[in-house]
Amino acid sequence: MKVRWNKVQMEAVKLLQKYNVRSAPVPLENIADSLGVAIRKTKLDSKVDGFLYSTTGKSVIGVNQSNVRPRQRFTIAHELGHFLLHRRQILHVDEKDALSLRNQLSAQGVDPYEIEANSFAANLLMPRELLAGDLSTIRIDPEDTKGKRTIKLLADKYEVSEQALLIRLGTLGFIR
Fold this sequence. Notes:
Layout: H1 5-18, H2 28-34, E1 37-42, E2 48-55, E3 58-64, H3 69-85, E4 98-103, H4 112-125, H5 128-134, H6 145-158, H7 162-172
Parallel strand pairs: 1-3
Antiparallel strand pairs: 2-3, 2-4
């Protein structure tokens, strides 16, 4: 399977428009609830960030309660990506049930489904338009003290990790 970059971006943008998201942080819990997806914070193996469990008429995102809030938010957005983009491709446990786990392999960029879910999460949590607005008057140099402070402030505003924000800003060409 080839990564469908445009579809991933369009799905995230459609969701942001549908729920009229105009500022950070994106209200993930409200969006998931509106989509009929319950979120459960639970104790999981330290190597598992979360999972998506779907059965006829019901879907649940399980999130590792031991992870920090930015990691939990990225995991929720990642699993929502699977929910919206990969309904037919999720590993089927039986005819009615489906299970997808988010773990350390998810971030390695080898599985197209995981790449899409990660891209969806980044597009959803850190929309290009919102970041462009925030960065319209400043330039970030991640190597200087002021730039590091700005990155920390933006990461806090979007409720994402500084690492996720730096990757997103680099991908969008806002920093080099």
